[in-house]
Amino acid sequence: MTPEFQEWILNNIPLLQQMQLRFNGFDKGTLSMSCPLEPNINDKGTGFGGSIGALATICGWTFTMIHAKTILEDPEAMIVDQSMKFHEPVTGVFTASCSSCIPDDFHQRLQEGRSGKLQLDIEIHSNGNLVATYQGFYIARKKA
Predict the structure, then answer these.
(1) Rounded CA separation 61/120 (Å)
(2) In terms of CB atoms within 10 Å, which end of the chain has fewer, N or C?
(3) Helix, strand, coil percentages, rounded to 5, for the chain
(4) Can you give the pTM of this predicted structure?
(5) Contact by Cβ (8 Å): 80, 69
(6) What does the alpha-carbon distance between residue 131 and residue 87 come to, in Å, rounded to a whole number?
(7) 116-126 β-sheet, strand order
(8) Average pLDDT for residues 120-136, to the nearest whole number?
(9) Residue 16: pLDDT above 80?
């Protein structure tokens, strides 16, 4: 994931600047990004559920784009369906990580001009604890 791609994401999705999103890296197939608690706090002093959901969603979207860019020069990706479970309150920096497997037909479908489909699992951790789990269904395709 290039610094230019990271900058493009932050410039095109202003919410992420307000959340103070940080890209931690894409290493050995795992994408990791995080946000500090302070700009994402709720009335209880813990992480706002909307911010946690947004972090999970953008993590999956970015993961999809990274893989689509290996086949397409100018792809687009979108979330189609998602579900999230909250296990514990977020009490500090929270980190999303995605290391889902890419199905064999994802790249083949993109090469054929069809939509590539990914079912992604994302974990959210805070203070060493698993605080939320997220499943998202994404598609990628050539930009129209």
Answers:
(1) 9
(2) C
(3) 35, 40, 30
(4) 0.94
(5) no
(6) 5
(7) 22-27, 30-35, 94-98, 116-126, 129-142, 75-86
(8) 97
(9) yes
Is residue 138 within 8 Å of residue 88, measured between CB atoms? no
State residue 8's pLDDT score.
85
The residue extents of the domains of the chain are 3-142
Of the candidates 34, 36, 32, the one whose C-alpha atom is nearest the C-alpha of residue 97 is: 32
Average pLDDT, the chain: 94
Pairing of strands 129-142, 94-98: unpaired
Runs of H (alpha helix) within 81-126: 104-111
Q: Where are the alpha helices (DSSP H) in the chain?
A: 3-12, 14-19, 49-68, 104-111
pLDDT band, very low/low/confident/very high, at 124 (cuts 50, 70, 90): very high
The answer to whether residues 100 and 120 touch, using CB atoms and an 8 Å cutoff, is yes
Cβ atoms within 10 Å, residue 144: 4
| Domain 3-142 in CATH 3.40.50.300 | no
**Residue 137, token pair as written in the block:** 């269904």
Instruction: Give 85's strand partners.
Output: 133
